[in-house]
Amino acid sequence: MTSSSTPRMVNTTYKRTSSPRSPTNSGELYTPAHEENVRFIHDTWMCVLKEIKSPQNERNERGPQEYVEKNPNPSLHTFTPIDLSDLKKRNTQDAKKS
């Protein structure tokens, strides 16, 4: 593994929230540490998306940057991203039907 000179994203605006996530209908129970990790990742990702969508002149010089391949892989030309939330909803609905 090689080290990269690219700076890592660090969110210094993270605030701990006290509202816990409800367990899903599948009976999964989440530990407080798991819930905190999920909130942190979600909140940080929302900040990244907000910064990326802001006009270029409002962005912090060291803020997030969208990566674009200089030489795209031709075998990925037909790749279509999948919405995992939508897939989970469909699988849950299919399980309820059967």
Short note summarizing the structure:
The chain is 37% helix and 0% strand.
Entry keywords:
2 helices, mainly alpha
Query: Based on the structure, what is the oligomeric state of the protein chains?
Result: single chain
- Regions with little confidence, pLDDT below 50 for 5+ residues: 1-8
- Helix/strand order: HH
Count of β-strands: 0
What is the number of helices? 2
**Main beta-sheet annotation:** none
Radius of gyration: 19 Å
Mean pLDDT: 75
Morphology = flat
Terminus-to-terminus distance: 46 Å
Structural class: mainly alpha
Please estimate the helix content: 25-40%
3D architecture notes:
Pfam families: FAM195. Residues 1-28 have a biased composition (Polar residues). 37% of the residues lie in helices and 0% in strands. It has two helices and no strands. Residues 1-8 have low confidence and may be disordered.
